[in-house]
Amino acid sequence: GAVSVIKDGKKIAEITEPGEYFGEMSAISGEPRSASITSKGRSKIKRFPGDKLHEVIQKYPEVANHLFKTVVNRLSQANNIIVKLASDRAKKPE
User: Fold this and answer.
1) Of the candidates 71, 15, 46, 85, the residue with the CA atom closest to the CA atom of residue 6
2) SS3 state at 31
3) Which of 27, 45, 47, 61 is the most exposed place for a label (fewest CB within 10 A)?
4) Counted domains in the chain
5) What is the pTM of this model?
6) Residue 42, burial from CB neighbour count under 10 angstroms (0-12, 13-18, 19+)
7) What tens digit of pLDDT does each residue of 2-31 get?
8) Which residues pair with 13 in a beta bridge?
């Protein structure tokens, strides 16, 4: 099922594809998580402790490949949003 990513009480993203990751930023950086997840219905979630990420990647290298694709995709989406906001701001008369 789909889940919503909630930060500061606002929905900032939605994860709808089966097999997608969330919480990876915290697992990679070691920083506390910055958002919460709310299920939009029935969801099947597989959890692994963030401090075990390196062990999981060593045992299952395909996890690293999928994880990197996920991070790159989210970075690309964030960059597109930044470019759009900057473009909109440049067009706005002062």
Assistant:
1) 15
2) coil
3) 47
4) 1
5) 0.66
6) exposed
7) 899 999 999 988 888 888 888 888 888 888
8) 5
